[in-house]
Amino acid sequence: MAGCCGHNAQFDGVSADYKRRLWLVIAINAAMFGVEMSAGQMSGSQALKADALDFLGDALTYGISLAVIGATLRTRSLAAMGKGISLLLMGVWVFGSTVYSVFYVGVPQAQIMGSIGFMALAANLASVMILARYKDGDANVRSVWLCSRNDAIGNVAVMIAALGVWGTATGWPDLIVAGIMAGLFLNSAFQILVQAIREQKSEAAHAH
Ligand SMILES: [Zn+2]
């Protein structure tokens, strides 16, 4: 579900094969963020935008975690801070535009919602399959795997919202699903930021 995924994934000492697979998953997540966010904009679906946030969060989480392997604690916590700030800004924007839409409810295009939601589900299932070989590995590896699986629940929620929009010919199912997902996301983005700030502080304290 939105923002469920490991905040502090660390991949020190993973095999070259696992690293390659992670990069592939990062590429899929980054691409799907772009696809789902622009489809959300075009179709007027807030649920698609909210679901897109999770792809961004996952791409940043795994991308940064892989990029800072072997880096200093300071670099790691700065990267975490940057991630927290960008996720929070995106989350505030999606949540805000969802609240705004409550007062100007339009009817999003259910067909686009349904098909992009399905595409997102396929992307997450592909990620699960790419990482499946490692699912019994250490806790970190397992959390990546579980996270992709849980994200599939969010994709199904988007498809249910599409069905609801189609059935009721209103935008409400879209807004309800989007509100829940964006709220969950905002909450976890906030937690990431709080933790990053805490890490910065304790790092600064150790330096003196
Ligand atoms: Zn996720």
Automatic annotation (TrEMBL):
Residues 22-198 form the Cation efflux protein transmembrane domain. It is found in: Membrane. The keyword Zinc applies. InterPro entries: Cation_efflux_TM, Cation_efflux_TMD_sf, CDF/SLC30A. Keywords: Ion transport, Membrane, Transmembrane, Transmembrane helix, Transport, Zinc, Zinc transport. One of its GO terms (molecular function) is zinc ion transmembrane transporter activity. It is a multi-pass membrane protein. The chain crosses the membrane at residues 22-43, 55-73, 85-106, 112-132, 152-169, 175-194. One of its GO terms (cellular component) is plasma membrane. This is Cation transporter.
